[in-house]
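User: I'm writing a short methods note and want a consistent example. For Alpha/beta hydrolase, I'll paste the sequence; you return only the structure tokens, no commentary, since I'll be parsing the reply automatically.
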Amino acid sequence: MSVQDVLKKYAVTASGKGGVPIIFAHGLGCDQAMWKDVAPAFETSNQVILFDLIGFGNSDHSCFSYERYQSLSDYADDCIELVENLCSEPVMFVGHSVSAMIGVLAARKRPELFRQLVLIGPSPCYLNDQEYQGGFSAADIEGLIEAMRSNYLGWVKGIAPVIMGNPERPDLTAALEDSFCRTDPEVAQHFAALTFWSDNRSDLASVTTPALIIQCSDDFIAPQSVGRYVAAQMPNAQFVELEVTGHCPHVSHPADVIEEIRCYAGLPVPHG
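Assistant:
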């Protein structure tokens, strides 16, 4: 596949002035627009790459099929394809929510392609399992998927405020609702099932790529204990907790996320 084909397939937007490439990967029901308040902050020091997962945003939807995408590992292969075709050196991968785990799986498969991982609100398993508390029972997940199937727009209206978690800022919730509403409901349901039924806990220990886990102090989707679990299981991980609410700090509190990434990567604060 040519570079131009890859750019079109994933609706890639590239900017920046060189330096270590930073790839930003969005979560369920979203697209690259969710990084609009974070990604530009790195354009003076790094190559910045935004893209849409297949089936979302402006990606080439003809590339999507239910047979091709049967697990999060299949999306990890797409991330590897991106890096191989667009980057001449190992990258920093910044993934939100499910894309955090997609990045983990990609780094596990091809560690030489990834310099660092920044995992925002990661969860290797959403299902409660004895001592491990992922935040959801099997009945919770079954109900969530069924709600998406039976009344997608109603589900969006109900879940968007929970995910965003900043009720005093309804504009943020509205932006997330709009993003979900731009997504094909059947694709979103399929991806949600892959996400919420996944269990990648056993993959964490074998990922040696340095990683920063960014966790919100009050997150309904990925509880604090889950973020700490991820950091404890990965051999080269650091954990940082933001004293903010919600599951999308890159949208609700972008300055905090920018600061943590800069500090972790040792990047300068631009002047002027």
